[in-house]
C-alpha cells in the first residue's frame, strides 16, 4: 500500500512539472501586444504655434522724424527758395527786386532807411533797414542793383549745405574775416553768400547773409566804368 501511494505521488509530480514547463514556454513565445489606446500621435495633431501680433512703431516715430532731419529738410527748402527767387532778382521775405525796383519804392512802403552810405568798392549807395534785416544797394539813377538779406533763418544753412545743393561755386573770395562764394542765377543775376571765415575750430560755418546782385546796374558808361561782376 505504501509503495502504491508513493508511486502515484511520483506520477502526479511528473505530470505537474510537465504542465508548468509547457505553460511557461508558451508565455515567453507570445509577448504582450501594445495596447490599442497607446497609438502614436500623428503630426497633424500637434498644437500649432500661434503667430504673435506684429509690433508697429508708434505714430510719433512716423510723423515726427528726428529734429536733425527736420532741420536738414527746412534748410534744403530754404536753399531752393533762395535759388528760385534769385532768378527773379529777389531775396527771401522781400518783394523788392533788383533791376526792377528803385529805392523810392522801398521808402514808400518802409519809410526812410536807418542810414545811407556810399561804398566805392561796391559801386553804389547802400540803404540799411535794420528792422527788416535788409540792405539795398542802388546806383545814381536810384535803381536797386543789389538786395541783401540778414534773415535769422539763414543761420540754419552751413557752407557745406550750400555746396551740396548748389555745387561748386563760380566765385570764391576771402575779404577780411569773411569767406564769400558766388553762383549765377539765370542770365542776369548772381547770388553772393557770405560766411565767417572757416577755421579749424569752425570748419563748416553758418551763413551770415547773402545778396542778389544785378551786375549791369553797377555799370557807369559815362565814367567808362564796367561795373562789378560779383
From TrEMBL:
Signal peptide: 1-27
Low complexity: compositionally biased ranges: 35-55
Domain of life per record: Bacteria
Biased composition (Polar residues): 57-74
Annotated keywords: Signal
Pfam family, one: DUF4309
Protein name: DUF4309 domain-containing protein
Organism: Desulfitobacterium hafniense DP7
